[in-house]
Design goal:
Helix 2 (about 80-100) packs across helix 13 and helix 2 packs across helix 16. The chain has one domain (about 1-485): FAD/NAD(P)-binding domain (3-Layer(bba) Sandwich), CATH 3.50.50.60. With about 500 residues, the protein is an alpha/beta fold. It has 16 helices and 21 strands. The protein is globular, with a radius of gyration of 22 Å. Helix content is about 35%, strand content about 25%.
């Protein structure tokens, strides 16, 4: 066994979250030493990989699940505003890194693409119109267009309108300020920049097997090199668990009180990927619809134009599925191994409360190719099966947490879990995830590094990296316009 070492920071997982936190910390305090451990032999191989997520710059422009209709018929837009603000913060940080030359060629990871919502049926059309009116009242959503005119929609989304019944009532909204993001390419760019800094070391094919806090407050980690079998031990003052679906088992190993009672519900996904270049060229938008009853938010159907490694692609889905794995390249025993005495009640309670979701996932798994085609044809009436092929998407683990009233509830967002002493933090959950990574990591800094964050050095640096830091963009239209124009110009995006 190799000698023990003691980096200042240990990041578990080489995805977008660890990469974001690593760059933030290194910019704030350059003398920090950082070690990154990734169990795969590649960077961003799980949830951050371009084929394993929607690639949508989640800004709530088109995602209808962020704007539910309340019982009185009004539209709840609070979550949409928070997500839109968070995405602007991410863009500010990325623009800073590009402007400083830390990250090259923004076009390799971010592209302008219209974000659209498309619905059919009188009730859904009425909902979409109210949604557009509610959102456009906020500066973050200025410029959102709405139309029920078939001729306008044919110009916006010709492929979606081809062969559609003229009598069918349809409507769409459009935001030209939308984006498509290759989070895999962005993660690799961030980690490449980190590796150029003194005191940063990346270890691929390395799995953290042990995690224990010692009497002096430091964390003792046991790591195995999966390629050579060699084992290593190290100590650190701070650990971030950003391992996607692998975060929950590691949080359980940490044994911190704050991690008790959390469980995970794995949801897998699949895409239909278009293989006909003529069809791909007819579409240029991200078009989101309404989720089926009982569907998890990550399964909201969407027809996506993507740019992956410089090539235009067209995807439809995702089709949800169930797997007991917590990672795409995980173990079938991940779910049963995650069940502990402290979380069995919340998991059982959440399971009982979400029987429609379980049924939905089972039905999705059992779908025939003809049934998948039928779902696609709701978006593309003239779709032909020979133009599409099924590909496996990423694996997500939805958070189950303790709840006094119900025993346990299933959450569909992201959750930062941190120890009271700020020495360890883990990120659980999924969407909107990567798009709001910068805001999530700022929240983590507030929890785990409050004293340093209060110093002029850190505070001033954060305002340099994120000009809107400490201010609410939704309440400040002048600031929003300034930072949006600046970040869009640097990232070469449409304003």
């Amino acid at each position: 066994m190799s000698p023990k070492s003691a980096p200042d920071i240990v990041l578990i997982g080489a995805g977008i979250m660890s990469a974001t936190l690593g760059v933030l910390l290194k910019e704030l305090q350059p003398e920090l030493t950082i070690e990154i451990f990734e169990r795969l032999d590649i960077i961003a191989g799980e949830s951050s990989d371009a084929w394993n997520n929607a690639g949508t710059g989640h800004s709530a422009f088109c995602e209808l699940n962020y704007t539910p209709e309340k019982s009185n018929g009004s539209i709840e837009i609070g979550k949409a505003i928070k997500i839109a603000e968070s995405f602007e913060v991410s863009k500010e940080f990325w623009a800073f890194l590009v402007q400083q030359g830390c990250v090259k060629s923004p076009e390799t990871f971010i592209q302008s693409i219209p974000h659209m919502s498309f619905v059919w049926g009188e009730k859904n059309v009425e909902y979409l119109k109210k949604r557009q009116q509610s959102l456009e009242s906020n500066n973050l959503f200025k410029g959102m267009q709405y139309s029920e005119d078939a001729e306008v929609l044919k110009k916006w989304i010709p492929l979606v309108m081809e062969g559609r019944d003229p009598a069918e009532k349809v409507a769409a909204t459009r935001m030209d300020a939308g984006t498509d993001i290759n989070f895999g390419a962005l993660t690799r760019a961030l980690i490449a920049y980190l590796q150029q800094q003194n005191g940063v070391h990346l270890h691929l094919n390395h799995e953290v097997r042990g995690l224990k806090q010692e009497a002096d407050g430091r964390w003792h980690l046991k790591v195995k090199n999966l390629e050579t079998g060699k084992k290593r031990e190290l100590h650190t003052r701070f650990v971030f668990i950003g391992a996607g679906g692998g975060s929950l088992p590691l949080l359980e190993k940490s044994d911190i009180p704050e991690g008790k009672g959390f469980g995970g519900f794995p949801v897998s996904g699949q895409w239909l990927v278009c293989k006909n270049p003529a069809v791909i060229e007819k579409h240029a938008a991200k078009v989101y619809g309404k989720a089926s009853v009982g569907a998890p938010p990550m399964s909201v159907p969407h027809l996506d134009t993507r740019m992956i490694d410089g090539k235009k692609a067209l995807l439809f889905g995702p089709y949800a599925g169930f797997s007991t794995k917590f990672l795409k390249k995980g173990s079938w025993l991940d779910l049963p191994r995650s069940i502990k005495f402290s979380n069995i009640r919340p998991m059982l309670a959440a399971g009982m409360d979400n029987l429609p979701l379980t049924k939905y996932l089972i039905d999705q798994v059992r779908q025939s190719p003809e049934e998948r085609l039928e779902a696609l044809q709701a978006f593309l009436p003239e779709a032909k099966m020979e133009d599409w092929e099924l590909e496996v998407a990423g694996q997500r683990v939805q958070v189950i947490k303790k709840d006094e009233e119900h025993g346990g509830i299933l959450e569909f967002g992201t959750e930062v879990v941190s120890a009271a002493d700020g020495s360890i933090a883990a990120l659980l959950g999924a969407s909107p995830g990567a798009s709001t990574a910068v805001s999530i990591m700022l929240e983590l800094l507030e929890r785990c590094f409050p004293k340093l964050l209060a110093t002029p050095a850190w505070n001033n640096k954060l305002k340099e990296m994120i000009p809107s830091y400490g201010q609410k963009l939704a309440d400040n239209p002048t600031l929003l316009e300034q930072v949006r124009d600046w970040s869009n110009a640097v990232l070469k995006l449409k304003s």
